[in-house]
Design brief:
Structural class: alpha/beta
CATH topology: Nucleotidyltransferase, domain 5
Number of domains: 1
Number of helices: 5
CATH class: Alpha Beta
Number of strands: 5
């Protein structure tokens, strides 16, 4: 089973693909979709990038960070638009989407809900056995995918549907 994790951003959207191998997560791919230009051009770049990742890696689930309340309304709006572009790409392919808060993602992967980006990068490198840490955006996306894998496993062991 392949899971695509997405860390949405209006300029840099991270993605990470993992595969469930027995009870472990196995690294498949990760990267960053860079978006430049006007807002519509950036949203199109995010949509096209996620669309291509889904076509290439054929995930069965997409895990994406849930929008948080930001102090800056403009930043929250841009983040929501980037998320929307990624969600439309997932919907276009009929891939199930699961949302997790930043707190859930960090607590699952690092053990601390308020971990900083370097802690997330380090734990992703350790958990996936990578020789180097991925960029912070890609690491956040991989953490999102791992979070979904763990929540799905927990739901399955409890006899619940994820």
């Amino acid at each position: 089973m392949r899971i695509l994790g997405i860390d949405p951003g209006s300029i840099r959207t991270g993605f990470g693909v993992i595969e469930q191998q027995r009870a472990q997560a196995r690294y498949v791919a990760c990267g960053v979709i860079g978006a430049k230009g006007t807002v519509p051009e950036r949203l199109l770049a995010i949509f096209a990038g996620i669309d291509e990742v889904i076509e290439t890696y054929q995930p069965v689930a997409v895990a994406i960070e849930r929008v948080f309340l930001a102090r800056n309304p403009d930043s929250a709006l841009k983040l929501g638009q980037a998320r929307g572009a990624a969600l439309v790409a997932a919907a276009r392919h009929g891939v199930a989407v699961f949302e997790y808060t930043a707190l859930q993602i960090k607590k699952t992967c690092v053990g601390v809900g308020h971990a900083d980006k370097t802690q997330v990068q380090h734990m992703i490198r350790v958990l996936l056995g990578l020789s180097v840490a991925p960029s912070s955006d890609a690491a956040d996306a991989l953490a999102c995918a791992i979070c979904h894998l763990h929540h799905q496993a927990g739901a399955a062991s409890a006899g619940l549907r994820p």
